[in-house]
Amino acid sequence: MGDAEHLTKYANNKNIANCLRDGFPHPYTINDARNWLKNNLTNKNLLLAIEINNEAIGGIGIIYQSDVYRRTAEIGYWLAEEYWNQGIMTEAIKTLVQHTFNNSDIVRIHAGIFESNTASARVLEKVGFKLEAIHEKAVFKRGKLMNEYMYVIFK
Ligand SMILES: CC(C)(COP(=O)(O)OP(=O)(O)OC[C@H]1O[C@@H](n2cnc3c(N)ncnc32)[C@H](O)[C@@H]1OP(=O)(O)O)[C@@H](O)C(=O)NCCC(=O)NCCS
Asked: pTM here?
């Protein structure tokens, strides 16, 4: 819960929220941070802060899927804008993917990115993810229909 203030400071950014699902709100308030932490600290997903100089400057998570999809996980991530393009997320995703494959029975990790998010596509490609499918008009965000690019990596 001690990360709530830093989360709010960095997550309150439209350039980040525009790339994510509506569950990541804009504006992003201290209550959003506290609610997110409260709701997510106790579930079985692996949700981590990315920390630099004792500040939470972003988040990365492995979200386990259920039922027949239980050997699949989704990966999600965001980083404070002042730290973009320094290779931080490439390293974080690589580490978390490796950790997940080494420590669980997950065989498939995927990420669905909005068509305009070239930085995220590039990061995933650098880690070894492949473009598996384009889900046409799957996303409706801020009044605009967009394609979703499904990237995947296998154990
Ligand atoms: C996507 C995001 C996590 C990337 O984090 P990062 O630490 O900056 O990523 P890295 O520095 O490891 O790599 C970024 C790569 O994208 C490239 N890139 C950045 N902006 C780009 C753009 N507009 N077009 C093309 N490539 C771009 C960089 O050049 C770099 O590639 P390179 O190493 O080949 O030069 C960060 O931009 C972010 O938090 N975005 C908002 C939230 C988000 O999109 N989350 C993912 C939702 S699927």
From this structure: 0.97
